[in-house]
Write a structure and sequence with these properties.
This is Redoxin domain-containing protein. The protein is an alpha/beta fold and 175 residues long. The chain contains 5 helices and 7 strands. It is globular and about 75 Å long.
């Protein structure tokens, strides 16, 4: 009976090691599926808070700051006032700011944006399709997308106003 238990333990260990190896291999070698600076931003179509359909194509020819966030994420909520201030600052130059909410319900999101006075558009990624297409695993993550649809810069983690401002300025300075 002892050798039967040993055999089972070895089999379980082998399965765990194999699964871990596959996970690590995917993380290391599937980089082509995750967009990087210079790549075309993945297209998407989602609902906004009013139930309308929105897509990346709505911003064609315009610079866009696309921030993945959630109310459950303290750095995300701390960053939102800076995004709002920068959205107001750059609006006349045609720069869009969009918050891509990470799968929360509309009631929670509406309550948050009312409480914090957020006026830029909020899109709802209810099925995590956009988050996965953009390879977002850390929150907040923000993509600065040029008017030609290419990603200028990706910032993971909370940004302050100076970081947002300098990133937008650099994006606009490109031909």
């Amino acid at each position: 009976m002892k050798s039967g238990k040993q055999w089972l333990q070895i089999a379980v260990l082998a399965v765990v090691v194999l699964a871990g190896g596959l996970a690590i291999g995917n993380a290391l070698f599937n980089r082509g599926q995750i967009p990087h600076a210079g790549d075309k931003a993945p297209p998407f179509q989602v609902a906004d808070l009013e139930g309308g359909r929105r897509s990346l194509g709505d911003w064609s020819g315009k610079p866009l700051v696309l921030s993945f966030w959630g109310t459950f994420c303290p750095p995300c909520t701390e960053e939102m006032p800076a995004l709002q201030n920068q959205a107001a600052k750059w609006a006349e130059q045609g720069v869009g700011v969009v918050g891509m909410n990470l799968g929360e319900n509309a009631v929670t999101v509406r309550s948050f944006i009312q409480q914090y006075g957020i006026r830029f558009p909020i899109y709802m990624d209810v099925d995590d399709i956009v988050r996965k297409a953009y390879g977002v695993n850390q929150y907040p993550t923000t993509f600065f997308i040029r008017p030609d649809g290419r990603i200028h810069k990706i910032i993971m983690g909370k940004m302050d106003e100076a970081t947002i401002d300098s990133s937008v300025e650099a994006m606009l300075a490109l031909p």
